[in-house]
Amino acid sequence: MKYLLVNATAAKTGGAQTIIETFLQNIPANLKTHFIVLTGLAIQIDQDNVTIIKKETNGLSTLFFSVLGIIKFQIKYRSRNVISFNNLNSILYPSHGVTYFHQLKALNSDYREKKIRVYRFIITRLLKKNQFILQSGFIKEAFKNAFPDIQKDPIVCWPGFTKPVSENDLQLLPCFEYLDSNTRLGILPIAYATPHKNIAILEPWDFFLEENNLKLITLMNKDAGLKGNSFLNINTITRNQLYCLYDKVDFMVFTSKDETVGLPIFEFLELGKPVFVYHAIYSLYYQEYFDYPKNLFLFKTVEELSELVQKHIDLRVSKRDYSTGEWNKILDLI
Predict the structure, then answer these.
(1) Domain assignment of residue 112, given as a range
(2) Which strands sit side by side in the sheet containing 97-100, from one edge to the other?
């Protein structure tokens, strides 16, 4: 039996968890390769050729484990190949590594923090023979500009996403019975107020929401979330609960300035409801890539967002499937 290591020790929640779960669900049961998956995620998968090993890393420990610590698992399972979702890969057999890269900071020369400089050094000096997997065409171009000496042409792989298998699996959220029945709801599917998430753009929006009897649900906690009577900061929730919310709300707002994908956008677009996304390189790319979805609207200012919401909040278009990924491009490399 051939063993293949999958390094996903840094994956926590949100998009990272979705990507790992989607990849594993796309592994054919009859594939004569046994996947050893290192992750801290609580993943349940009933497949004979997939074994989950509990292993979690954070920060610099992720960096060191990805390039050196993983080697002891390679020796144990006699696996020359490693599929890494941690942006870096084992330096033991760099020509056999497949690396799913999603560290945007490493592509931007303005970021000079020590960790990012180490990322760049390792990729440039030690992983030139790796096969890198990227999530979009615009990220591929940025990657090639940042690392011109990479020997293998990076592969673009649309990740897709998993969905709850049936309504019976949905865990209902605590209801919002205290809201007026005429209140319209939106969702900001962001759990952390890091600078690139750009949530500060919405701080002046409370007045507009209140004036129009709207509420915006966020996944941030009350202390770190948006302040105002019209913002409902409900903290992080399960993926099933998130889909329950998708069904309940009328629209989505997505404020990030930088994303490799922004999967919640497409999870919600599927439903035919309006999604209002910050005007950025990634959103412009995907707007064109998916042939200008009729329910996807880009905004640059909170004033423009207000106008778009007023005009399109009732829009409903035909449902469309964005969930099918291109994981065969990775599996074909094995």
Answers:
(1) 2-157
(2) 50-54, 33-39, 2-8, 82-84, 97-100, 131-134, 155-156
